[in-house]
Amino acid sequence: MVVLIIIGIILVLVVYGIWEYNNLVRLKEEAKNAWAQIDVQLKRRADLIPSLVNTVKGYVKHEKNLLTKITELRSKIISGTPQERVKANNILSDTLKSLFAVVENYPDLKANQNFLALQEELVNTENKVAYARQAYNDAIYSYNVKVKYFPSRLIASLAGFKEMEYLEVEESAKAPPKIEF
After folding, report:
1. Which CATH class is domain 23-174?
2. Do residues 20 and 151 touch, judged by C-beta distance below 8 A?
3. What is the pTM of this model?
4. pLDDT in single tens digits along all 181 residues of the chain
């Protein structure tokens, strides 16, 4: 009878361990999926930038350095670690703000339908990136809590699950943009 109780306890522990392991795997995959959603939006944004640059190029001849910088940053948001890509994305956001400020000096460009459509599409993409970042950090939170809580912490450490990093906003992105007239 004692042997059956011990076997029953071991069986319950094994089933619990499998259940916790599967939960950890699911949460980690949710976090990976959330990053993939950010990746999709960054790629979408990167694909819009050449069209924007080409539309602006015809009007803004003497702003070549700004357009070159935007093109270089575009390539950085396509490759690298998640943190590097997000950092490049933040810098690109600031640079695009500068571009849109320069556009204010070109009434014909501001009225150009292609430019307006691209500008609206970039704004929509920015919103999607922000939402995807929030979803990513939410997924990381759920995963990290599971990795830290007892008793799932035991399963996590035995199976090699480690905490994942949140995506954090750069200090420069937290400050409001400077607008000068």
Report:
1. mainly alpha
2. yes
3. 0.66
4. 889 999 999 999 999 999 999 999 999 999 999 988 888 888 888 887 777 777 776 666 656 677 777 777 777 777 777 777 778 877 877 777 777 777 777 776 666 677 777 778 888 888 888 888 899 999 999 999 999 998 889 899 889 999 998 887 665 444 444 433 2
